Amino acid sequence: MKLYTIFGNPVGHSKSPLIHNAVFSKYSKDARYIRTLVNSGEELKKVWKELEISGASVTVPHKETAFQLADEVRGVAKDIGAVNCLVREGDKIVAYNTDGDGFLYSIVDWCIKKVLVIGAGGTAKAVIHSFLKEGFKVSIVNRSEKRLEDFKELPIDIFTWENFEVSSFDLILNVTSAGLNDDFLPMPKEILEKLFQKGRYVADAIYKETPFLKLAKKHELETRDGSMMLVYQGVLANYLFLKGKVSKDEIRERMLEVF
Ligand SMILES: NC(=O)c1ccc[n+]([C@@H]2O[C@H](COP(=O)([O-])OP(=O)(O)OC[C@H]3O[C@@H](n4cnc5c(N)ncnc54)[C@H](OP(=O)(O)O)[C@@H]3O)[C@@H](O)[C@H]2O)c1
User: Fold this and answer.
1) What is the pLDDT of residue 141?
2) Is 63 tagged catalytic?
């Protein structure tokens, strides 16, 4: 039996087992995907070794730690500095990042040129990388200053809540964890309301209706939660888990059947 898992904290809410097991039950019957709550990089590595994990998804708050502990980092993850997917190659942990392209596929039908990203964690790094590759004009705003340091080299506009100036954006995206396990908005309500008056599309990486999305709906904006991002980043990860033996189209179809 090949064992796959999601590493994170929390992981109880995760739908990753649902979508990955759907693919395994059809195309790789000797594989199973479980949830593993870990509190640190050391714990993650210990479980990886002891259970001989074949591949893993990595979620909040371990994406940057997983980048550090991987034996090899491939593709865009090298520029991002955070990973969401680990694959065993012999004794090596090989790491990738599928979040940015996963999100991009999830909004492929939206016409976007100018984006505001709220939040400055690992997911923000991934989506901004994909946005810049697409030629979007990007701004980032975060609650505090420290994490914004990581974005200083990029050709984007950088703000904290304090110095943020409201202007119009085609897409306003929440990639903070506000609303994941609480009722917080990712920015003060009065700023969001001004933004929504000038906005067009609003998306959240969290895959449920957050207070942020509810507020955007009140302003009659087109909204999308992170469900399709989850599926598409999962398609790219599962393709790596199965080492390309099943096509991305087949993986996507199977995941969408159960989601
Ligand atoms: N749908 C999907 O497939 C998918 C994929 C990836 C991620 N996600 C979701 O994306 C979110 C971010 O993930 P991540 O890995 O980037 O997390 P992370 O690295 O932990 O980043 C956290 C960010 O959220 C901000 N934040 C946390 N609580 C906040 C609050 N109450 N108000 C305002 N800002 C707050 C932090 O600001 P400070 O710097 O000020 O602390 C920081 O910028 C998570 O909710 C995750 O579930 C979804």
Assistant:
1) 98
2) yes
DSSP string computed for 248-259: HHHHHHHHHHH-
> What pLDDT, on a 0 to 100 scale, did the predictor assign at position 237?
98
Residue 205's pLDDT is 97
- pLDDT value of residue 37: 98
pLDDT above 90 covers a percentage of the chain that reads 98
* pLDDT classification of 191: cutoffs 50, 70, 90: very high
Using CB atoms within 10 Å of the CB of residue 230, give its burial: 0 to 12 exposed, 13 to 18 middle, 19+ buried.
buried
Q: 169 lies in which domain range? A: 101-225
Mutate which of 116, 143, 158, 187 for ligand 1? The one with the most ligand atoms within 8 Å of its CB, which is 143
Instruction: Report whether residue 143 contacts ligand 1, using a CB cutoff of 6 Å.
Output: yes
- Whether residue 237 sits in one domain with residue 163: no
Q: Are residues 150 and 235 in the same domain?
A: no
Assign residue 61 the CATH number of its domain.
3.40.50.10860
Buried b (16+ CB within 10 A) or exposed e, 120-133: bbbbbbbbbbbbbe
The mean pLDDT value of the chain amounts to 97
Residues 221 and 138 reside in one and the same domain: yes
State how many domains the chain has: 2
